[in-house]
Amino acid sequence: MARTKRERAVIVSGVRTPFVKAFSEFTTLDTIALAKAAVEGLLRKTGVSKSLIESVVWGGVILPSASPNVGREVALDVGLPAAVEAMTVTRACASGLQAITTAAAMIERGDCAVAIAGGSDSTSNAEVKLPQKVVHAMAPLALGRPSPGDYVSAIAKLAPFTDVLPTRPKIAERTTGEVMGEAAERMAERNGITREAQDAFALRSHTRAAAAIASGRFDEELTSVSLPNGNSVTSDGLVRADTTLERLAKLRPAFKKGGTITAGNASPLTDGAAAVLLMSESRAKELGLAPLAAITEWAYVGVDPRDQLLLGPALAIPKVLDRAGVSLDECDLVDLHEAFAAQVLSVTKMLASDAFARERLGRDRAVGEIDDARLNVHGGSLSLGHPFGATGARMVSTMAHELAKSDKRRAVLGICAAGGLGAAAILERA
Amino acid sequence: MTDLLLSLGSNAQARSLFRTLGLPIPLPATLRRARGPVSDRELADKKILFAAHADAPLASMCASALARAGADCYLDDFEPLRERFRGPCEAFGRGPHALALLNESTKLDGVVVDLSSASAVGDLRVLYSSLRGTVTRLRPSGRVVVLAASAAEGDAEKRATQQAIDGFVRSLAKELGRNGSTANLLRVKDDSESRAGAALTWLLSARSAFVTGQCLEVTSSARTVNANTGTHNRALEGKTALVTGAARGIGAATARALARDGAHVVCVDRQDDGALSALARELSGRAVALDIAAEDAGESLRALFAERPLDVVVHNAGITRDKTLARMTDAHWDDVLAVNLRSIVETTRALEPALREGARIITLSSVAGIAGNTGQCAYAASKAGVIGWTRAESARLASRGITVNAVAPGFIETKMTEAMPVAIREAARRLSALAQGGRPEDVAEAIAFFASPAAQGLTGHVLRVCGGALIGA
User: Which of A400, A406, B18, B138 is deepest in the core (most CB within 10 A)?
Assistant: First the structure.
């Protein structure tokens, strides 16, 4: 597929808020407030003048219904010039990456030269929804001047009085009604991923994230967040440095009797935001900035959500590697979004399978075995947490920093998302 | 058109009442049918058991076809077959699982038995031993597919053995019918394994609901035209199909099925009383009012497709003028033969230059054409003629990759059968393994299957869609 680029898009910097458990410190901050904190932190860290920003692209999953264009609200709240245009994209858990690749595409096309992209979600502020039945029955009361008779008929329409209570949103597939944990449970079973392997992977995630935190590795990527009560949050809240296999093994299956998915090997509900500053390579040069990495290729795929909901990365990664003309071995870093340990292990198993390559990719040899030293070097969503819209931007930021710090050449990212979507992207040392 | 017994059969209380009273009337089972367009995962989450004689030559083909279609593969004789299933099953996360580990009360959706290497009479025992215990575990509308080799090759004992399977499958089909389940035979020629997956999947799927006791043979006679795209989703995308007699019944159902799978459908019928153009509008196709038995029908069709190559032709138009030979008039005889047979010969001749390489021709025969029927001397002659024509043309057009197949409906619930006298209609419905009439959609599914690119291995067939009709089997 030949595509022409006018410009190469580079990642100049990335910053995120601490990630904390839903309904804890950030409960009073909605997704816009979290996004604002991340973008302000980014501007502070880079020292880039607000007047240089041309576009904001923001990713989110649980969008506030009164102001769904979070990107624009953030631009206004942060005080970017009114002329800065802004949009919001949504692609389930790949929303943050979608925001970045959309911004990168704009830069490659020459639509703009400097953009802020990222994502945020506040699971704590998910809106509680009135059932449509109630909304429809009450419509005559909301419009015009209702008579007492209208009230009576509205109530009559609600009978029998079932499904009238407000419902909390849950992470269920619209087409299948299946909760994501159940889908992961089926994947574990179908791909033969044991509870032990899942717990071991979860432990590894926590150990690595804890080591990164202890070494100060995340410090320059983090910005502290001030709370309305005057306190501020300065560090990640979900990583457990002290967890052990024994403790993980004690947790009860959360989605199925006799199942293998527990709270310990699934990513937790999280609040947080992450932002990335993108520029065209030439503008970065003009401004005398040293980019961390270039985002060179990306690919999105879909699989049947009734089949293996979260297998997308196993197909998106070979696709993006093909586009870049490189092999998995030529990627020094591999960063996979950890929705569930079972899902990561299913994806890595398929990438390493000759049979999968033969049957599903039409090639003779497996995409590749991922060397443990290269995979999720500083942990992932299992330990750090997973604010849906922010995760993609968190991964891009961490990998871009890692390439720059370790002077590695190339990183490949893989993200699974609701609806059977898969995403992958390649970052290269600028 | 309501079938009282069928509605009673779907009522649990009525079923148990019939059983308690010991009424000698078999209550037909409600057949599971497919909805929506053909997809890559026609067997999603179905539990399919595979058993085999000796080295199971077709195991790898089956593993790939089943896993790809979304089925969970179970093996009776686990260890020897495991390696053959491992790759494809791993790629799709579909096992293989040992049958022994499946809960006794869990039902199976289908059983596949590979007998293609059976060459001695003793080898047949596998049929008995592998199916005896498992057919009782079949879910309603379950499937049995026996895989076999060509019955026309090898020494006398091998041919006897392979032919014996035929009798077994036909009998089993009759036994399974009351449950809505089917049994069919799929013969695979030595060099044609790579073409067999699509037929296996179709026979196991809900799209073959009214096909039972039948035998299909996969061959490499029709030349490969273009590599299969590997997907069954909208397999007819970009293709043009012609359906005659499209205004109603089987023709309309066929036009819908072909359009559903992506084809641009040219709907032809003798006159447009509104139904034809309504159908064409619904399908974003084209309506053409044309009497295909007319002198100039060939010319008109040739002109119609001068600029637009044809990929699928369905010769569905047909009439009945039922009269015993003694009461038949010249007009009866001439009309039936002209519409049902001569028009096929002549329009195909005219359309041949427009047929693309790898095109599909599907004719409509009838169970009456195979078995004969009182009052249908002319009709049965025309429908038997269709079979002869289909076989001859399939051989002649094979080098261009064109396949020619006939579909022979049994009792189908249409306007035509609705007009039958009650007693005859009741008898016709019940005299089949499934003890009910089929629907136009059942025939349409068979036609759509023959029309698909994946059916390259099937040509010269007469496939009965008859629910295992007891006559002429």
Answer: A400
Is the pLDDT higher at B427 or at A401?
Answer: A401
Around Cβ A164, how many Cβ atoms within 10 Å?
13
A176 at interface of B, judged by CB pairs closer than 8 A? no
Helix (H, G, I), strand (E, B) or coil at A291: coil
As for the ipTM of the complex, it is: 0.84
**Helices and strands of chain B, counted as H and E runs:** 17, 14
Q: Predicted confidence band at A138 (pLDDT cuts at 50, 70, 90)?
A: confident
Helix axes B125-132, B156-176, angle to 10 degrees: 20
Query: Mean pLDDT over residues A125-131, rounded?
Result: 84
Query: Shortest CA distance to A97 belongs to which of A426, A428, A429, A430?
Result: A426
Q: Is B186 left (phi over 0), alpha (psi -120 to 50) or beta?
A: beta
Give catalytic status of residue A337 as yes or no. no
Domain locations in chain A as residue ranges:
9-126+267-429
A187 closest CB neighbour out of B67, B93, B94 = B93
pLDDT at B222: 94
Provide the pLDDT confidence category of residue B246 given band limits of 50, 70 and 90. very high
Peptide bond into A318 cis (omega under 30): no
Count of A-B CB contacts under 8 Å: 38
Residue A4 CB neighbours (<10 A): 6
**Do the beta carbons of residue B136 and residue B175 sit within 8 Å?**
no
CATH 1.10.760.10 for domain B28-218:
no
Radius of gyration of chain B (CA): 22
- Give the model's confidence band at A129: pLDDT under 50 very low, under 70 low, under 90 confident, else very high: confident
Give the span between the Cα atoms of A375 and A264, in whole angstroms. 20
Q: How confident is the model at residue B24 (pLDDT cuts 50, 70, 90)?
A: low
Domain ranges of chain B: 28-218, 240-465
In the set B50, B202, B379, B449, the catalytic residue is B379
B230 contacts in chain A (CB < 8 Å): 362
Q: Does A356 touch chain B (CB under 8 A)?
A: yes
Specify the length of chain B in residues: 473
Distance in angstroms (rounded) separating the CA atoms of residues B110 and B143: 4
Taking only the tens place, the pLDDT of each residue in A58-115 is 999 999 999 999 999 999 999 999 999 999 999 999 999 999 999 999 999 999 999 9
Q: Match domain A9-126+267-429 to its CATH number in 3.20.20.70, 3.40.50.2000, 3.40.630.30, 3.40.47.10.
A: 3.40.47.10
Q: Is A386 a catalytic residue?
A: yes
CATH number of the domain located at residue range(s) B240-465 in this protein: 3.40.50.720
The chain-wide mean pLDDT, for chain B, equals: 93
The pairing of strands A410-417 and A421-429 is antiparallel
